[in-house]
Amino acid sequence: MVMSSPGTLLVLSGVSCSNVFITVAMKIRLAVKLGFYFSVVVLFLGSCTGEQQGGGQQATGEDSYVSLTFPSGSTVFELGQDVEVSLAFDSTKTFTSFELYVDSSRVHESARPEGSHVVKTGGLTVGTHTITCRVKSGDECVDIDNLSLILLSDVTPVKGSYEILGVIPHDTRAYTQGLIVEGGQMYEGTGMRGESTLRRVDMRSGEVLQEIGIPEEHFGEGVTIVNDKIIQLTWQSNIGFVYDKKTFRKLKEFGYPTEGWGLTFDGRNLLLSDGSEQLMFLDTATYRIIKRVQVYDNSGPISKINELEYVDGFVYANIYTTDFIVKIDPATGKVVERWDMPGLLGDADRDQRTDVLNGIAYDGGSKHFYITGKYWPKMFEMILK
Question: What is the pLDDT of residues 280-294, one digit of tens each?
Fold first, then answer.
């Protein structure tokens, strides 16, 4: 990315959490990200069924009806684990029913107080979720209480290997941000303000065959192809460009509310990374975000997700400032495999400008990957095993 230098079910039961350690840094990142997920839940739960918008309010102090807690004392669990939730009701207050939600899905409703429930998490995705209890008096929602639930992946990523099949020259002026192969043609998006380009590159010689610059106020980012169009992101401008694939003529611009890092196409939607642990799914007609998936392994969130490539149902991603590539299940957010590539570019090929590993392209015909980096003099044709 940027310069490296500067079906859920509730049943009665009691379950304790496994002992999971999370670093302070991870907790901070999760707290920041929780803001988005909580806001979505609040929007959905702003009113009870059949009542006017704005009827649901979270009571405080003497007005509080219910309080949610995890008996285990932890907010971190493994995906698929049964998670016990305690509900403490104020016995001096009367109400007609309460509802329990996981995110925006109602999973339980009852007319009488109940002390605990178990959330079956097998049908959820990894990452942060919100458990909400809504207390009703008649049709009026009189109290809401929330808990954040963090689910780690139940899969330990496999450590993959790779075999280098060939080395191709790469333009050392290219601060590589996006890389894609289609129909025997390679396309590359480069970054840096005043230097950002979209290119067509010869897959054997590395020669730049076609090139267009973008306005110097923009920092070019990831690229992908959708039918006869090339889509290119920018870093902090919140603007994407749509080009004719053959002529590189700019057809339109579109906006998005995040930073732009990596971009790929799964055959239906665009998948965008913004440097966090999220993958965002964008509609190809409106370019609006329609879904977000958090990316986790069995230890925690995988942030700094950068350049993306969609291959056979999985997303391959560079992790910015590192020498490894991860394979992500976009349906669940689980990291299922990882390739470490320290020393891929030897010291003899580096100078003061050489930057980090970035750039993944896949040739569906040969089933080979093409891997490079920012200002690298080489691109590697390889098999990821």
Answer: 999 999 999 999 999
